[in-house]
C-alpha cells in the first residue's frame, strides 16, 4: 500500500498540515455517516451524566474532567455542547434540560471508535494509514483518542487555538492527527483554521503547556510543560510567534483527510450556519523505544496499550 509522495511529505513538514483529497470513498463516507446517526439516535439519556465538553480555555468554564470523560478512552461515550441546555434545570428532574433533540445536541462521540465501531475501525486500523504513518517517519505508530466531532448547526462550539501534543504528550512530542471530513467543511461552517509553519520552533511551535489529570485525581487542568517541547530533530530555538498572516481557513471536501502535526497551532470557530460539520479524527503517537507516553495525560492507555497501526 502506497503512502504519501515525497512532495506531500515535504508540504507537511513545511506547513505542519496536509490536505489529502478523496482519501475516503463515497461508500465509506456513507457508512460512517450512517454509523454516526445510529450512535447519536440510540444512546440513552436515562443514566447519562450530561457531561458537557469544554477545555475551559476561555477562563470562565471549568475544564471537563468527570469520571465519564476520564474513563472514556476505551469506550464510546457522548459529550454535549454547553449551549445545548437551558439556563435553569428541569423542575421535574432537577437535571439540565436540552433545548434540542439529543442527536442535535452532542459535541462529540469518543474516544475509542477505532476499536469498538466496525465502520470506524475499518478506516482507522488499516494498511493505508500504516503506510501514511511510515511516510511520516513513525516506527511503531499507535492509534488513540478517536472521535466524531459533530459541530451541530447554530450551537457547535468553537475550539480555541491549540496544539494537539498539549493533550496527548509524549516525551519527546510525536502526535499527528488524522482528521477526516465526513461533510463538506469551509468558511462559514466552522472549518479548520491552521497557522502555516507554526509547528516549527522558530515560529513558537513549542509545547509550553499540557492538559493533564489533576494530581488529586479530581478533574483536569493545564500545567506548564517542563519536558521536551518539540519532536526529535526539530529546532528548539524560539524566535517569533505565529501571526494572523499565517492563518489559513481551510476548505475541505467530504472524504478528504487532513494530517495535523502535533505542534501546529490550529482552531475552529463556532458553527453559526444551518449545516452540521461532521468530522472523524484520531491521533497517532510513536510507540517505539525512546518515546514515553506521559502518565499524567488526561487519556491513559487501556489494558493492553494503545492500538498498534500495523505496517506491512
Helix content: 10-25%
Can you give the mean pLDDT?
92
Counted by DSSP, the helix tally is 6
CATH topology: Jelly Rolls
Largest sheet: 8 strands, antiparallel
Low-confidence stretches: none
* Number of beta strands: 16
Radius of gyration: 19 Å
Into which percentage range does the β-strand content fall?
15-25%
CATH hierarchy: architecture = Sandwich
The sequence of SSEs as H and E is HEHHEEHHHEEEEEEEEEEEEE
Description:
InterPro entries: Phytyl_CoA_dOase-like. Its cofactor is Fe cation. Pfam families: PhyH (PF05721). Keywords: Dioxygenase, Iron, Metal-binding, Oxidoreductase. GO terms for molecular function: dioxygenase activity; metal ion binding. With 312 residues, the chain is an alpha+beta fold. The chain has one domain (6-287): Jelly Rolls (Sandwich). The chain is 16% helix and 23% strand. It is built from 6 helices and 16 strands. Strands 1, 2, 3, 4, 7, 12, 14 and 16 form an 8-stranded antiparallel sheet that branches. The longest helix is centred in the N-terminal third of the chain and has 17 residues, at 26-42. It is globular, with a radius of gyration of 19 Å. It starts with 5 loop residues before the first helix and ends with a strand.
Amino acid at each position: 500500500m502506497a503512502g504519501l509522495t515525497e512532495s506531500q511529505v515535504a508540504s507537511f513538514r513545511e506547513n505542519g498540515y496536509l490536505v489529502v483529497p478523496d482519501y475516503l470513498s463515497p461508500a465509506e463516507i456513507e457508512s460512517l455517516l450512517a454509523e454516526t446517526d445510529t450512535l447519536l439516535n440510540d444512546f440513552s439519556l436515562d443514566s447519562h451524566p450530561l457531561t458537557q465538553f469544554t477545555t475551559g480555555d476561555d477562563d470562565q468554564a471549568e475544564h471537563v474532567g468527570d469520571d465519564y470523560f476520564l474513563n472514556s478512552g476505551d469506550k464510546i461515550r457522548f459529550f454535549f455542547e454547553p449551549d445545548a441546555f437551558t439556563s435553569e434545570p428541569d423542575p421535574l428532574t432537577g437535571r439540565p434540560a436540552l433545548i434540542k433533540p439529543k442527536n442535535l445536541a452532542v459535541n462529540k462521540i469518543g474516544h475509542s471508535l477505532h476499536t469498538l465501531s466496525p465502520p470506524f475501525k475499518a478506516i482507522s486500523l488499516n494498511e493505508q494509514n500504516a503506510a501514511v504513518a511510515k511516510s511520516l517517519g513513525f516506527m511503531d505508530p499507535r492509534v488513540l483518542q478517536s472521535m466524531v466531532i459533530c459541530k451541530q448547526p447554530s450551537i457547535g462550539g468553537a475550539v480555541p487555538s491549540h496544539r494537539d501534543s498539549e493533550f496527548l504528550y509524549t516525551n519527546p512530542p510525536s502526535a499527528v492527527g488524522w482528521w477526516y471530513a465526513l461533510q463538506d467543511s469551509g468558511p462559514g461552517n466552522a472549518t479548520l483554521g491552521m497557522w502555516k509553519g507554526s509547528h516549527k520552533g522558530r515560529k513558537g511551535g513549542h509545547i509550553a503547556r499540557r492538559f493533564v489529570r489533576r494530581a488529586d485525581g479530581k478533574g483536569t487542568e493545564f500545567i506548564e510543560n517542563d519536558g521536551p517541547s518539540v519532536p526529535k530533530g526539530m529546532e528548539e530555538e524560539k524566535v517569533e510567534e505565529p501571526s494572523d498572516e499565517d492563518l489559513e481557513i481551510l476548505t475541505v471536501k467530504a472524504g478528504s483527510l487532513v494530517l495535523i502535526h502535533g505542534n501546529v497551532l490550529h482552531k475552529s470557530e463556532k458553527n453559526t450556519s444551518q449545516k452540521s460539520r461532521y468530522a472523524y479524527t484520531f491521533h497517532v503517537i510513536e510507540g517505539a523505544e525512546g518515546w514515553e507516553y506521559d502518565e499524567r495525560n488526561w487519556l491513559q492507555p487501556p489494558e493492553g496499550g494503545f492500538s498498534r497501526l500495523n505496517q506491512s
